[in-house]
Amino acid sequence: MVSSDLKNEKTLVRVKDVVFGGRKVVVIAGPCAVESREQVVAAARGVRRAGAVMLRGGAFKTRTSPYSFQGLGEEGLRLLKEASEETGLAAVTEVLDKDSLELALEYVDMLQIGARNMQNSSLLRMVGCSGKPVLLKRGFSATVEEWLMAAEYIVAAGNHNVVLCERGIRTFESATRNTLDLGIVPLVQELSHLPVIVDPSHATGKRCLVAPMSRAAVAAGADGLLLEVHPEPEQALCDGFQSLSTDDFGCLMPELQAIAGIV
Ligand code: PEP
Ligand code: MN
């Protein structure tokens, strides 16, 4: 069960040498999408230098338009793995279906279920059976209860290594891409023993809001952050407007350290 037990013990989710739910705030950073070897290696080196402990990078993208860049597929996974091995950063990537899941199992250390697939119960069961740690994004119209039930599908299939990720929800407000629902971080930590991290990139959709909301998430007690970082955000094929440059990310890390004590 994902709900807290009486002893209130937190689940520690281990991804190689990274531990979610412990004392350290886990910072995952990298591009929205893997675009080329140069891009993902530069991103990985930059985020590693600044202190990130995991690398993100999409190879199978769920874009709103079918005409937008859809990711490099298996080639993207290969390049992500190369960057991950070169820097020693564990890698996470989103899977969309059985085929992308089977491929990703060979290349990455953690599987991401995106907001659009949060209630795809057959995909949840499949990642549950995969044995790999899972990063489960909150659906953009999901209640906390629905989100925790989605996690329950993964746990019920035998996989207890689930990290929850708040990434903003749809509200009437259109000034930001989504509305970051930060209050649910301590709430979900009360309701569940699973670690909870925050994605301020998709939650805000605006580069200038990413650092303030990252600081706020850490101050609220989030167990980690998932951040989009690109070596050249202006040239990004996907979500450049909400991506930090590696330099911006380098400035943010000491600020997080100052708030959390340990990052
Ligand atoms: C992502 O993190 O690459 C992504 C697509 O996010 P979300 O599923 O939260 O929209
Ligand atoms: Mn993105």
TrEMBL record:
Keyword Cell inner membrane applies: no
Record's keyword annotation contains Cell membrane: no
Gene3D superfamilies the UniProt entry points to: Aldolase class I
Superkingdom in the source lineage: Bacteria
Keywords assigned by UniProt, alphabetized: Transferase
Domain DAHP synthetase I/KDSA: residue ranges: 17-257
EC number(s) stated in the UniProt entry for this protein: 2.5.1.54
Gene Ontology biological-process entries: aromatic amino acid family biosynthetic process
GO molecular function terms noted in the UniProt entry: 3-deoxy-7-phosphoheptulonate synthase activity; aldehyde-lyase activity
Record SUPFAM superfamilies: Aldolase (SSF51569)
Name of one Pfam family that matches: DAHP_synth_1
PANTHER family: PHOSPHO-2-DEHYDRO-3-DEOXYHEPTONATE ALDOLASE (PTHR43018), PROTEIN AROA(G) (PTHR43018:SF1)
Identification of the protein by name: Phospho-2-dehydro-3-deoxyheptonate aldolase
Origin species: Syntrophaceticus schinkii
